[in-house]
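Handoff note, outgoing to incoming analyst
You'll be picking up this chain. Sequence as last confirmed:
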Amino acid sequence: MASFTPENMSGKYKLNKQLSTNMEELMQIQKVGWVVRKAIISALVALTIAHDNTSFNTLAEVAGIPGVANNRLLDGTSVEEKDPIFGLAKKRTVVVLLGDVTEAHLKDAWKGLDPDTKLVFTSYQSVKDGWKMIEIVTVQEVDAQVRLVMYCVGTNDKGEVVHARMVYDRVDK
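Most recent structure output, in case you need it:
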């Protein structure tokens, strides 16, 4: 198994619902329908990541059903991608150091980490529905275990803001 660090988060993960916030409000911001939200919230959510110096690729599974691959280049290129759940969105991904994050609410999510910790920072903007989201992923100690942590901030077209934290346990140890 490769090392499990912010520089290499490749692996298989399972969402730890006890340590994560409820994702329903975030999905509401993204205009995901009620039935789909309830299905995702009640199901086992797994995540497979392939991460290297140039890309951060994820594949989520809900109740064992593979979802859409989310392939991200880490060079800051803005691309449009259509997802069957979230619709058409522009996304841009870069690697940043925690010490370079200036937004207080984003910096607070990573208290206790070294300022030189690398974060995979993706911004999304819906082409049609008006929502925006920032997603930051890294490795962090949660409840005395090193875990994958994904912190999201979503904003809808009315300016309402939702924060969510998803904590994943590594399952391919």
